[in-house]
């Protein structure tokens, strides 16, 4: 049996851009692929300076190796004790860029589950009884984010995740959305009520078992990120250097000559638990033979961050 779905995790435009991670299955749940694009930029924080070892002493030492003379002061961004030199000379403040570089599905577990049952009997001996078979049950769907990252990285943005499973056997779409702060280990839960109604005719002395069944899916996704820094380091030479007091050096040159790290990696593990292919199976109470199947639907949703 095929379960067509589309899963979209969207990290919207925050400071300067956005990150999109798209998981798509064309044929069935186990045939899925992951695509990603975008980046998120911001002026480097003091904590992120530590992650890249961009302390004053390391940069001053690198300035001497690069230029031949050690500078007196270094700055990576506004403000400075002097005028706005970054704006005046068109220098670029040091910015941190986060982008996904690899994403993959590392595990998918699919299993059919019986969520709820109800019995309908006909104790009459002479005529058939028509019942309204109504079965519903509330279950939980979850999204868990687990991070492996440098403690100095301070992205600290609320990224919005929209998880969308396209139209399948449920007669509609299954959508999950929530926000989660980048770098924070979190588990988001929502409650959904699944069910439907169907008429069933029960012969004399017979019985019908209505079973609410669904496919329970657990999907594990791993996303790898790279964080880089770029821009100009403002160096102040108190006694001047080659006729000038202020110099701006491309950061990558100081990183190279100072043997400073140019890349910090992090990864995110996303675990998604959801239900699809929901239906009610009507079966003979004595033989167990299925006599009728009716698609079920999500009747009520208590969404993430609201329960």
TrEMBL record:
Origin superkingdom: Eukaryota
Species of the source: Arctia plantaginis (Wood tiger moth)
SUPFAM superfamilies the UniProt entry points to: Aerolisin/ETX pore-forming domain
Protein name: Follicular epithelium yolk protein subunit
Pfam families noted in UniProt: ETX_MTX2 (PF03318)
KW ATP-binding (keyword) present: no
InterPro entries, per database record: Aerolysin-like (IPR004991)
Signal peptide segment: 1-17
Keywords: Signal
